[in-house]
From TrEMBL:
Its EC number is 5.6.2.4. PANTHER family: ATP-DEPENDENT DNA HELICASE HOMOLOG RECG, CHLOROPLASTIC. The keyword Phosphoprotein does not apply. This is ATP-dependent DNA helicase RecG. One of its GO terms (molecular function) is 3'-5' DNA helicase activity. PROSITE patterns: HELICASE_ATP_BIND_1, HELICASE_CTER.
Length: 673
């Protein structure tokens, strides 16, 4: 009889106590959990490439022999260990230098004569080919070489205390000895593909297409559970009893009549969708998705007025104090004349506008989560930049009401596959038109831009009465990162633009100082704002028509698009200049996407393709953190198949009464928002 998949590792005789502790620390307790620790990548060790003559800039897997080991630098733990590796065939004089900084134990591991397989990105330093901190294995020490060389070899995410080759040997043994009938799966997503075969081919494939097929099998299984959760939550929400709001529309009509412009067709369509939701007895769960400058705020105002005239209170939560205060000023401007009482709650401020009586619309940051006394009858919750909040934070605010309607907003265009996967339990309204009267934004990519040229252009715009943002990736200088910082460059810009008012804004300044700096910039007292990405959302200064982004290659496309959205908010012709060192051709190609289009959805698709879903949405806040196959979220066919399977199962078994294992995997997080 083979190994039972559910067997505890402590029951097995061939693992050492240290190995069991290491697995336990990584929350790996059973044979199946070891098998479920899937490879993060593979190395083809059937045939190794020849040592290159120059740096490729790409990761490479090579095989060689240590010909020299040296410790360089100064005493103590500082300095670095340098290992020179030559070819093991004797036909080439090429060598590659492997370096490890502040890792003195490397000297005890590697010695002249060791045969290595090593993996890393080659660069050229002082005329030498160098790889810093490479992955490596010593072939001489391998007990069962057939598991480690002359095949496609799995490389796993590290488990501290267990080497790659030992982890590979353990996995190989488990895969070979496990009883196929003991392997557990909550639901068989592919009847034609036995799970034991999937494990064999995902860990030790004979060819890469096998590995890819196995990974897609496990990805489909994972996405099925994700989609089932989404569909399960949606069915639960649809069955809940909420309250009917939005029957009265006098305030909404008065608001429409007070506007000096007409809403766009997309805004009117979204308002109609929201009205229809609010009038249903089940609670609204809708996402308002709109590109920068598409007018989400006015749609949110319409929703708020419908709830307020129905006698309910409204809460609007924003992720930053700057954004909350911006919303407060905007809502007061438009709603004060209608007699709506608007309040502000942040950690630093408590303001109530619009006369006496209880606040009808309360705008704030996380401080709203702890201000329960302000809500007697919370009927509508609006969450701006929703992906900046965790599920628990959203639920805590929502639970201050009794099944309130929920409207979440995002200015980050989300590709269709991600909308379906992460927000599939929400109805979606899309603002795909820009309001009239917005200036055109010209985007230019400037590799190796001269300071004098940029300064001259900035002065030209300032002389015309405009304002400018100068954005940097870092707050302060960093020894480890080759990028410019806002604090250092601020002093330089003060000298270059001595005739103008230049201010500094970043995440480390106090809330009071942030407010003062932004207030001066909004009021035109400051001409130039040197900043980090703290201005990414919520800053609305129509007179600012120029943004220069330094080290643009360090930002994702969606973030750059968000930053660009801070200009072009008035009638003036606007400019976004992307400055880069020009050394990375892939980065230049990426930035060209931004130059060629201002369509946020196209940019989001490109960002998804280039960086993956985790970077696009932020895994911690979007619920993606625990996914093993996050890269497959860009695979529309796989996502749709997972959704099809989930919908089909729920149609057949709405309460999962016949699928107890799946029922245990359903997560109820209060209300999804």
């Amino acid at each position: 009889m083979g190994l039972i998949a559910s067997a505890e590792l402590t029951e097995l005789g061939f693992l050492t106590t240290k190995e069991i502790i290491a697995f336990s620390t990584a929350k790996v307790m059973t044979v199946q959990q070891v098998l479920d620790h899937l490879p993060k990548r593979y190395e083809d060790r059937r045939q190794f490439a020849a040592f290159p003559a120059q740096a490729t800039g790409k990761p490479m897997c090579l095989r060689g022999v240590v010909v020299d080991c040296q410790r360089k630098g100064f005493g103590g733990r500082k300095g670095f260990h340098e290992v020179v590796v030559g070819t093991d065939d004797g036909f080439s004089d090429n060598t590659i230098v492997l370096r490890w900084f502040n890792m003195p134990y490397i000297a005890k591991i590697l010695a002249v004569g060791h045969e290595l397989i090593f993996f890393g990105k080659l660069k050229e330093t002082a005329g030498k080919l160098v790889i810093d901190h490479p992955d490596f294995e010593i072939i001489n020490d391998m007990v069962d070489a057939s598991v480690h060389v002359d095949r496609i070899v799995p490389i796993y995410k590290n488990i501290v205390g267990i080497s790659q080759r030992r982890l590979r040997e353990i996995t190989y043994r488990f895969r070979k000895d496990v009883d196929p009938d003991s392997l557990c799966e909550a639901y068989q997503v592919d009847e034609s593909y036995p799970r034991i075969d999937a494990y064999r081919e995902v860990h030790f494939p004979e060819a890469m297409p096998q590995a890819e097929a196995a990974r897609r099998f496990f990805a489909l299984e994972e996405f099925f559970i994700l989609q089932l959760n989404v569909a399960w939550r949606k069915s639960r929400y649809d069955a809940q009893r909420g309250r009917v709001l939005g029957k009265k529309t006098s305030l909404l009509k008065a608001f429409y009549e007070s506007l000096p412009f007409d809403l766009t067709g997309a805004q009117k369509r979204s308002v109609k969708e929201i009205v229809a939701d609010m009038r249903r007895p089940s609670p609204m769960h809708r996402m308002l998705q709109g590109d920068v400058g598409s007018g989400k705020t006015f749609v949110a105002m319409c929703a708020a007025l419908l709830a307020i005239e129905s006698g309910a209170q409204v809460a609007l939560m924003a992720p930053t104090q700057i954004l909350a205060e911006q919303h407060f000023l905007t809502f007061c401007k438009w709603l004060d004349p209608l007699g709506v009482r608007v309040g502000l709650r942040t950690s630093a401020k408590k303001l109530d506008q619009g006369g006496s009586g209880q606040v009808q619309l309360l705008i704030g940051t996380h401080a709203l989560l702890y201000d329960e006394d302000s809500f007697e009858d919370l009927g509508l919750v609006i969450i701006d930049e929703q992906h900046k909040f965790g599920v628990e934070q959203r639920s805590r605010l929502i639970q201050q009401g009794v099944m309130p309607d929920v409207l979440v907003m995002t200015a980050t265009p989300i590709p269709r596959t991600l909308t379906l996967t992460i927000y599939g339990d929400l109805e979606v309204s899309v603002l795909d038109e820009r309001p009239a009267g917005r200036g055109k934004v010209i985007t230019a990519l400037k590799p190796k831009a001269k300071v004098s040229d940029v300064t001259k252009f900035v002065k030209q715009q300032l002389d015309q009465g405009r304002q400018a943002y100068l954005v940097y990736p870092l707050v302060e200088e960093s020894e480890s990162l080759n990028a410019e910082s806002a604090t250092v460059e601020f002093e330089k810009w003060q000298k270059r633009l001595s005739k103008y008012e230049v201010a500094l804004l970043h995440g480390k300044v106090s809330s009071e100082e942030k407010e003062s700096v932004m207030s001066d910039f909004r009021d035109g007292k400051t001409d130039v704002l040197v900043s980090t990405t703290v201005i990414e959302v919520g800053v609305d200064v129509p007179n600012a028509n120029l943004m220069v982004i330094y080290n643009a290659e360090r930002f994702g496309l969606s973030q750059l698009h968000q930053l660009r959205g801070r200009v072009g908010r008035g009638e003036h012709k606007s400019y976004c200049i992307l400055v880069t060192d020009g050394k990375n051709s892939a980065a230049l190609e990426k930035l060209q996407e931004l130059v060629q289009t201002d369509d946020g959805f196209k940019i989001a698709e490109a960002d998804l393709r280039l960086r993956g879903p985790g970077d696009v949405l932020g895994t911690q806040q979007s619920g993606l953190a625990d996914l093993r196959f996050i890269e497959y979220l860009a695979d529309a066919d796989l996502v749709r198949e997972a959704r099809r399977l989930a919908d089909a199962l729920l149609h057949e078994d709405p309460n999962l009464t016949s699928h107890s294992k799946l029922l245990d995997l359903m997560v109820d997080d209060g209300v999804r928002a």
